[in-house]
Amino acid sequence: MLTIAGVEFESRLFTGTGKFRSSQLMLESIKASKSQLVTVAMKRIDLKTGADDLLTPLRKAGVRLLPNTSGARNAKEAIFAAELAREMLGTQWVKLEIHPDPKYLMPDAVETLAAAKTLCERGFIVMPYVHADPVLCRRLEEVGCAAVMPLASPIGTNQGLVTESFIKMIIEQAKVPVVIDAGIGAPSHAAHAMELGADAVLVNTAIASSASPIEMAQCFKDAVDCGRRAFEAGLGRVQTQAVHTSPLTGFLQQ
Amino acid sequence: MILIHLNNVPQTLQQPLSLQALLEAQNICQHSVALVLNEAVVPKHRWSSILCHHEDRIDVFAVVAGG
Q1: Looking at the complex, does the CB of residue B38 fall below 8 Å from at least one CB of chain A?
Q2: Host domain of residue B18
Q3: Which NCBIfam families does the record cross-reference, listed alphabetically (chain B) (predicted)?
Q4: Residue A178 needs a FRET pair 20 to 30 A away by CA distance; which of A141, A190, A231, B65 works?
Q5: What is the per-residue pLDDT across A66-105, written as a single tens digit (0 to 9) for each?
Q6: Chain A within 8 Å of B67 (Cβ-Cβ)?
């Protein structure tokens, strides 16, 4: 079973709550995904319209909330967002994400490492969203992060495991759970990430933007389960030369 | 008269209000928000004992959907 910061998760599929056509559809999709860790963001409320109560139904669903620091452009803002989330939700858990670049939403490695160090020192359970950089992931582990969350490809692009070679290095070296985040666009991408030995995947856009999000959530659940089982069963070795699977006795000629 | 900035919107208060009373006056559901006074997060248990002052900047945040 997957364990992060002493908390056990039966499901290795984490989900986001953004981009769904309605809150109801989001809640039903999360239920169908069997996800137990769900990301949320924070925003200044609009005084005229008020705020939709997203918390009550999510808490009723029994999922653990993982607030993110989306919108933070540097370490200082991300630390502030984490403190805000801790006060609002009563949780130490935080998905640390700092991406000042609006076009590709690439995470800022320098600011992320600085924020992670401070947040870990302040007792947060830090799960940083980062580029698939094996060196950075080790540094984040050293400052006390509970997991690392390297990207598969840019957020919301559905491009899949563009960073596969580097994800493999991170998985090989990591002593904390590796959660593949961002860019996973199809259940086959998720299954592949799990076959590589990832501990979990985080999926949002691919489920939320599907024509049938509930069905897609179930597909991702099955894909993650299948990929993990395949990893545990042990995949065969990849070779360049053909290796026969039937006897080569040449009996037709003999 | 007290001028405050609530989520970047200027507001005038006829009398000093506590942060909690301010939220109540704005019909803001208190169980799911966090409050920031002059760029410092204020723990919920202190909302009733802190009064708004002239030129205070108060920001109220809530959870929204996100990935």
Answers
A1: no
A2: 2-62
A3: thiS (TIGR01683)
A4: B65
A5: 999 999 999 999 999 999 999 999 999 999 999 998 899 9
A6: yes
